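Blinded run. Sample ID left blank on purpose so nobody reads anything into the name before looking at the predicted structure. Input follows.
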Amino acid sequence: MEQETRQINLALIGFGHVGRAFARLLIDRRRWFLKEHGLECRITGIATRGHGTAIDHDGLPVQKILGAWKKDAGLGAFHNGPACASCADFIRQCGADILFEMSVQNMKGEPAASYIREALGAGLHVITVNKGPVATHFSQLTRLARQRDVRFLYEGTVMDGAPVFGMVRHTLPATHIHSLRGIFNSTTNYILTQMEQGAPFDAALEYTRNAGIAEADPALDLDGWDCAAKLSILIQALMGGKVKPGDIERAAISEDTGRRVRAALRRDRRLRLVARAYRQGGKVVGKVELQELEVFDPLAAIRGLSNILVMNTDTMREMAVVENDPSVEQTAYALFADLVSLL
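Blinded prediction complete.
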């Protein structure tokens, strides 16, 4: 007997590099969804800050939208229904089962947290790669999701598509994480390892900006805020702490850091921006620090754009997750993996 095809409707807030890579991945994996899950995924809504909004409950022509995007066309021509005056209107009218929140990063968490609250309150599952709302509103949003009996997933907020939260949730049952440390910011790690090879700070930073790796405001990377937000999410989601980004002691890097990089090299050590969390007196403490590492330290071997998370646990002792040279496709895959986990 042939399996009946189910429909699942998706809506996207934000359609930048990650959103478009995710849309292409959905198109590429259409046959896989049908074969493995008997499922047809339809994007019924896309809302953007600069290109307008489009809703069609029968499914938007995503391939055409992607093609028109190269010509800088707006979404208005693809809209079918009443106009949306706000993102709240969009969430109520899009007809989606799952909202993918990918708006511009803001370390205060707004307006993304409001979009997520609106969607969860309306009974939609929410998947995001936006660090700000998860770091600053974690308890509130996860509690609301439980109350509404929906899921709130955020795999792509730390280490792009590398499995971190899903791995702990599904494959490390009853495991207690004593401490963790890692390198979570590709921009600063690239700059530090380029300066090891004699490249100037400004040239290394410019590369990350041109490649779309650095945050829109590079100060979020250089001043340690991006690292602090990711560390805050790890502490709250994996260690049960209540640490917000502003509670985390941060170090910054600048052109002057080059002297410390070269001094460390002369001692056969490596300078890295290390995020770490540990338990102290019943609390969890988080810090983002410039550390000189012995060359045999696994964090010292992480070069360029690569990231690493090392966890010290009561069941598996020390274990590490490494992501080499991530790109926008890996972040899009985190959205995809979270979507599959809902099926």
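Unblinding after everyone has recorded impressions. Residues 236 and 242 are 6 Å apart (CA to CA).
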